[in-house]
């Protein structure tokens, strides 16, 4: 993804500054808000990427949209505009969130299911992740109907595949390698 290395550097610098000022949690909340707002608004994405719109207009719009953000976060807007890098703001926000989670020992658990998770299932998965890793995790649900049923859980480099598709594939492999079935 274009700009992801630069976004990671800005996120590291932002985290360092937030640590110095002891506002890492507040800045993380700002980054979550920025990430979600930009992701949910195609108009805002187009506005921020537009080369026709002047940087002062973009800055004023961001400061108006995100009035309640911390001073460190509004300083990020200034730096990105000054360096003509405002287009990577969503990447900086998501990189900061990832770094903040790593710093606090929070993992991201990607759970692939055939249907969206219910809050009860999410709580069970959270408990299982804590049992496996010893840490809390953010649950990220990916809906993929091709797995038919069950789930696939990924936390860091640990993966557990309990999908129906995986079980059917394993059964097919067993039947193909079975000498009795092969003679039929």
UniProtKB/TrEMBL annotation:
Membrane topology for this entry?
Peripheral membrane protein
- In Swiss-Prot or TrEMBL terms, this protein is called ATP synthase subunit delta
The entry sums up its family as follows: Belongs to the ATPase delta chain family.
GO cellular component terms attached to this protein's record: plasma membrane; proton-transporting ATP synthase complex
Q: What organism, scientifically named, is this protein from?
A: Salinimicrobium profundisediminis
Q: Which residues form a coiled coil?
A: none
A molecular function annotated in GO for this UniProt entry is: proton-transporting ATP synthase activity, rotational mechanism
User: Which InterPro entries does this one have?
Assistant: ATP_synth_OSCP/delta_N_sf, ATPase_OSCP/dsu
> What is its biological role?
F(1)F(0) ATP synthase produces ATP from ADP in the presence of a proton or sodium gradient. F-type ATPases consist of two structural domains, F(1) containing the extramembraneous catalytic core and F(0) containing the membrane proton channel, linked together by a central stalk and a peripheral stalk. During catalysis, ATP synthesis in the catalytic domain of F(1) is coupled via a rotary mechanism of the central stalk subunits to proton translocation. This protein is part of the stalk that links CF(0) to CF(1). It either transmits conformational changes from CF(0) to CF(1) or is implicated in proton conduction.
Q: Does the keyword Transport apply?
A: yes
| The keyword Electron transport is assigned to this record | no
Question: Where is it localised?
Answer: Cell membrane; Membrane
Name the principal localization, coarsely classed.
membrane
Q: Write the record's keywords in alphabetical order, separated by commas.
A: ATP synthesis, Cell membrane, CF(1), Hydrogen ion transport, Ion transport, Membrane, Transport
Give the gene symbol. atpH
């Amino acid at each position: 993804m274009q700009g992801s290395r630069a976004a990671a550097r800005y996120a590291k610098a932002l985290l360092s500054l937030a640590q110095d000022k002891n506002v890492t949690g507040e800045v993380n909340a700002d980054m979550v808000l920025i990430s979600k707002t930009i992701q949910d608004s195609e108009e805002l994405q187009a506005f921020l990427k537009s080369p026709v719109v002047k940087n002062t207009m973009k800055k004023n719009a961001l400061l108006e949209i995100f009035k309640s953000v911390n001073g460190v976060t509004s300083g990020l807007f200034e730096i990105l505009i000054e360096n003509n890098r405002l287009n990577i703001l969503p990447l900086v926000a998501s990189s900061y969130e990832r770094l903040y989670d790593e710093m606090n020992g929070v993992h991201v658990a990607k759970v692939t299911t055939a249907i969206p998770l219910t809050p009860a299932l999410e709580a069970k998965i959270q408990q299982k992740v804590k049992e496996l890793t010893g840490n809390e995790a953010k649950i990220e649900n990916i809906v993929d109907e091709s797995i038919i049923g069950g789930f696939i859980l990924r936390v860091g480099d640990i993966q557990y595949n309990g999908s129906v598709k995986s079980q059917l594939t394993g059964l097919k492999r067993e039947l193909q390698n079975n000498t009795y079935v092969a003679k039929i």
